[in-house]
């Protein structure tokens, strides 16, 4: 294949050139037919316009949207909406901020073959820029008017006269177009001046008509209010006389006015922050204000049944309670004086109660636990009695080692007899119980004197076992 290409390189280059030209020509034709290349051209955004009629509009034929003769987009799809034509305008992205909300659209033919385009007036800057998807209403659009539509509005006689007029004008102006152009050119200053005169006359005529009408209404009102006018003039005379008598004071007031105005300006500037907050606050209060009528109606429904109760029960009670209230006034005054001290006392009492109620956790008990413990011990202490009278319970707490030491050192048999069941109990004192059992076993074998210290008892001296019976 390489050999064939090398042999016919000239033909192969010509084919490549023709292929490239074909692609370029095809792209040019398709571009002018409205086809857009996704990777090369950006996607247009779509606005809409509502027209009375969409005749001769053919989507996909490259019909353009123009502003002052410059193409800014193409005509897209057309739909029927409420008996009107809703035409899509595919506007190029670079003209996104060109169209305003007061834009107007005119449907016009580009040639005599009804090759239509839309002439777009984008509007003026004070109007906001239209968003994507904005629809120009039918009130801001006009369709193309054909001569047939104009002639259809005329009756037969008028159309005949118009036909004769046009034919006569055609015969008279045959081969004389240059002369007609010169005549129109000479009349241009005259027409311009006449337009200015007519505009001024029309404006003055309207102003004059309004002035005459206003004077007539004013004279009628003055004639009906003659007495009041006389009183106004007399009152004005008195007022002006008073102003004249206060000339010096008025002069001083006028002299002080600039400073007052400066102070007023400064005050208003300081109030501006309050006004900025007052505006949103007032808007937030609007729902409450709107709810006032319903609230008043509900209050009325409550007040009407409550009136007899207030009149016949509460009002006599208040009248009867007045002497008592007057008597309570000195006490209330004294209570008011003592209120700060009471407030401090209750704060201290509150802190004390909080301290009592504080629970530090599982590691230690709070004050309330110990208070209950004291109460329990107090009740146990003062609530016991027998035939001999009241007696007080006594609770002693000691360790097994201390009890063994007391038993070893006490000369009283009663103490030894009371402590021996405890010290020989393996559940209460396991160490002392084991030593006692070993000591008792040795004693039974007569291997150790009763007063000797046993080395197998862990160093625990148990001589009290010698005082116990062996059988």
Provide a descriptive summary of the structure in words.
With 471 residues, the protein is of the alpha/beta class. Among the domains are: 1-32; 42-144; 291-357, no CATH class; 400-467, no CATH class. Helix content is 60%, strand content 11%. The chain contains 12 helices and 10 strands. It has helices spanning 2-7, 9-32, 147-152, 156-172, 177-224, 226-245, 247-290, 292-357, 367-382, 400-409, 413-423, 430-444; strands at 45-51, 64-67, 70-81, 84-91, 104-109, 116-121, 135-136, 141-142, 385-386, 389-390. The strands form 2 sheets. An 8-stranded mixed sheet has the order 7-1-4-3-2-6-5-8, with no helix packed on it. A hairpin with a 2-residue loop joins strand 2 (64-67) and strand 3. Helix 10 (400-409) packs antiparallel against helix 11. The radius of gyration is 59 Å and the shape is flat. The relative contact order is 0.03.
Number of helices: 12
Our Rg estimate from Cα atoms comes to: 59 Å
Determine the fraction of residues in helical runs and give it as a percent range: 55-70%
Beta fraction of the residues?
5-15%
- Count of individual beta strands: 10
Average pLDDT, to the nearest integer? 80
What would the principal axes of the Cα set say about the shape? flat
- Written as H for each helix and E for each strand, in order along the chain, the element string is HHEEEEEEEEHHHHHHHEEHHH
Which structural class do the helices and strands define? alpha/beta
Strand line-up of the largest beta sheet:
7-1-4-3-2-6-5-8
Please describe the biggest sheet, giving its number of strands, its sense, and whether it closes into a barrel: 8 strands, mixed
* Distance separating the two termini: 132 Å
Q: Point out poorly predicted stretches.
A: 450-461, 463-471
């Amino acid at each position: 294949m390489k050999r064939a290409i090398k042999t016919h390189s000239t033909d192969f280059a010509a084919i490549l050139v023709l292929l490239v030209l074909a692609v370029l020509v095809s792209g040019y034709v398709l571009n002018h037919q409205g086809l857009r290349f996704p990777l090369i051209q950006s996607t247009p955004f779509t606005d809409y316009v509502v027209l009375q009629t969409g005749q001769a509009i053919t989507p996909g034929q490259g019909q353009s949207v123009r502003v002052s003769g410059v193409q800014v987009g193409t005509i897209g799809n057309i739909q029927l909406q409420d008996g009107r034509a809703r035409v899509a305008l595919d506007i190029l992205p670079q003209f996104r901020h060109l169209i305003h909300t007061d834009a107007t659209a005119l449907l016009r033919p580009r040639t005599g073959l009804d090759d239509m385009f839309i002439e777009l007036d984008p509007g003026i800057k004070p109007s906001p820029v239209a968003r994507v998807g904005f629809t120009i209403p039918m009130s801001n659009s006009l369709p193309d008017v054909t001569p047939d539509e104009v002639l259809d509005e005329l009756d037969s006689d008028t159309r005949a006269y118009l036909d004769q007029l046009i034919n006569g004008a055609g015969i008279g102006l045959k081969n004389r177009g240059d002369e007609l152009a010169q005549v129109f050119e000479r009349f241009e200053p005259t027409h311009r001046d006449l337009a200015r005169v007519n505009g001024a006359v029309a404006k003055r005529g309207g102003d004059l008509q309004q002035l005459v009408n206003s004077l007539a209404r004013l004279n009628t009102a003055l004639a009906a209010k003659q007495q009041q006018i006389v009183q106004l003039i007399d009152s004005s005379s008195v007022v002006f006389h008073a102003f004249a008598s206060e000339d010096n004071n008025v002069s001083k007031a006028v002299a002080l006015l600039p400073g007052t105005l400066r102070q007023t300006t400064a005050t208003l500037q300081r109030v501006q922050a309050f006004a900025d907050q007052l505006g949103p606050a007032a808007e937030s209060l609007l729902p409450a204000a709107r709810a006032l009528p319903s609230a008043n109606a509900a209050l009325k429904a409550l007040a009407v049944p409550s009136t007899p109760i207030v009149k016949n029960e509460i009002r006599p009670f208040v009248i009867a309670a007045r002497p008592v209230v007057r008597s309570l006034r000195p006490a209330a005054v004294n209570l008011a004086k003592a209120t700060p001290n009471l407030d401090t006392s209750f704060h201290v009492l509150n802190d004390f109660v909080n301290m009592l109620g504080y629970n530090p956790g599982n590691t230690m008990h709070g004050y309330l636990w110990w208070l209950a413990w004291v109460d329990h011990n107090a009740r146990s202490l003062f609530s016991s009695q027998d035939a001999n009278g009241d007696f007080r319970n006594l609770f002693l707490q000691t360790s097994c080692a201390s009890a063994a030491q007391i038993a070893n050192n006490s000369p009283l048999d009663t103490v030894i007899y009371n402590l021996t069941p405890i010290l020989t109990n393996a559940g209460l004192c396991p160490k002392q119980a084991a030593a006692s059992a070993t000591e008792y076993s040795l004693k039974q074998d007569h291997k150790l004197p009763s007063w000797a210290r046993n080395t197998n008892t862990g160093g625990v001296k148990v001589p009290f076992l010698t005082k116990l019976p062996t059988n």
